[in-house]
Amino acid sequence: QVQLLESGGGLVQAGGSLRLSCAASGTILRVNAMGWYRQAPGKEREWVAVIPSGGSTSYTDSVKGRFSISLDYPKNTVYLQMNSLKPEDTAVYYCNLKSVDYGMRPYDSWGQGTQVTVSS
Fold first, then answer.
1. How far apart are CA 90 and CA 80, in angstroms?
2. pLDDT tens-digit profile of 55-87?
3. Whole-Å CA distances, 43 to 72, 88, 92, 96
4. Could you count the other beta carbons within 10 Å of the beta carbon of residue 116?
């Protein structure tokens, strides 16, 4: 069983910065990738960023140039550095882990979500 513990959310003024952290614990056989999703009130969940293990990062267009994802593989911890925050970034942010089970079959784990609120 894998658990993802998120932290770093909070209230920030527009133009400010936050850094989200997500630490994975439990039985993790292999980390294929870690990433971040977000969901604003009344909207669908949206993919934000992903970082494959040993691979290059990818971002949704709305956060390119402002957000940066990084992975500390030995610690199984993913970070999301968010700069130049905008009110439209307000959402619950969810951490995602792409791993494998004992049969080497891929599966996803999710964090509980952390609230990010950007005031104008």
1. 14
2. 799 999 999 999 999 999 888 899 999 999 999
3. 31, 12, 11, 19
4. 22
pLDDT of residue 79: 97
Give me the amino acid identity at 60.
T
Question: How many CA atoms lie within 13 Å of 52's alpha carbon, on the beta-carbon side?
Answer: 4
* DSSP letters spanning the chain: -EEEEEE--EEEETT--EEEEEEEEE--S-EEEEEEEEE-TTS--EEEEEEETTS--EE-GGGTTTEEEEEEGGGTEEEEEE-S--GGG-EEEEEEEEEE-TT--EEEEE---EEEEEE-
Give the model's pLDDT for residue 117.
Answer: 98
Count of residues in the chain: 120
pLDDT digits (tens, 9 = 90+) for 1-48: 899 999 999 999 999 999 999 999 998 889 999 999 999 999 999 999
